[in-house]
Amino acid sequence: MTEDVTFKIFRGEPDEDGDKCGEMVNYTVEMDEGMVVLDVIHRIQAEHAPDLSCRWNCKAGKCGSCSAEVNGKSRLMCMTRMEDVMEETPDGEPVLVKPMQAFPLVKDLVTDNSWAYEMNKKMVPINGPEKLDWEFNQNEANRIQEFRGCVECMLCVNSCHVLREHQKFDEFAGPRFFVRLAGLEMHPLDTENRIPEIKEDFGIGYCNITRCCTDVCPAGINITDNAIIPLKERVVTEYYDPIAMIGRKLGLR
Ligand code: SF4
Ligand code: SF4
Ligand code: FES
User: Fold this and answer.
1) Backbone angles phi, psi at 75, to 5 degrees
2) Do both 123 and 245 map to the same domain?
3) Which of 81, 111, 141 is the last residue of a domain?
4) Do 23 and 57 belong together in one domain?
5) Domain that holds residue 23
6) Is the pTM of this model over 0.90?
């Protein structure tokens, strides 16, 4: 069974000063059973707006490129079922689709996420082990396996008030990169100590554990509880635990 659906989509580009400049435009198309938001966008491109820009690759929730805001929520368009979207959209109202608001606009639904590539380069990769005859304990592997599921969609970054509202892109690594840092710090064979950078350069203190990042992660990573809080605990141990401080002074760590 088919029915019509109206999408109200942001169309625009940055002006000379880099400010977002555009308007919300309505498009109505037929919606088939089983469609996801990205299918509707493709139908709009095919039938009404071939110049509507959006980013996508896998259509399977794995490449992290189709991130957008659907009805104000940070979501992957390819994994968001129209059935669910219609349930939350008030009768007679269009479905709102906007680009991620935390990032600079390129065009329409496409944002410039190059900040993420620059931030990624600042992280020191795995250091070690020197000997290669190690055994990897399954429990240790399980702990960091969760973090490897990140598809780099940046939806967590888009939902984090430290970046979205306060624009602390120079001082705060953001949830996605605390996930990466946790994966590095908890790696059983890694010998690097990134705690000073996590405190100073990556600004973990700005995070006040609101869990908005965890709520939107399409990979189901428990960003706050499993990555950020353990990193915060390591910072506290390194800088504020009196016993650890005495141990360091005595050269025991
Ligand atoms: S828990 Fe921290 S990183 Fe996640 S959204 Fe809240 S402030 Fe940002
Ligand atoms: S942690 Fe989750 S929300 Fe953040 S970039 Fe990775 S997959 Fe996306
Ligand atoms: S198209 Fe790859 S995650 Fe949506």
Assistant:
1) -150, 155
2) yes
3) 111
4) yes
5) 3-111
6) yes
CA distances, 75 to each of 43, 90, 142 (Å): 19, 19, 26
pLDDT digits (tens, 9 = 90+) for 91-138: 999 999 999 999 999 999 999 999 999 999 999 999 988 777 778 788
Residues 124, 106 share a domain:
no
Count CB neighbours of 135 within 10 A. 7
CA 2 – ligand 1 centroid, Å: 40
Give pLDDT, residue 1: 65
* Tally of domains within the chain: 2
Cβ–ligand 3 distance for 80 under 6 Å, the answer: no
Based on the fold, state whether residues 138 and 102 are members of the same structural domain: no
**Pocket of ligand 1 from Cβ distances under 6 Å:** 159-160, 162, 175, 207-213, 224, 228
Q: Which residues line ligand 2 (CB under 6 A)?
A: 64, 150-156, 175-176, 179, 216-219, 221, 223
State how far Cα 167 lies from the chain centre: 15
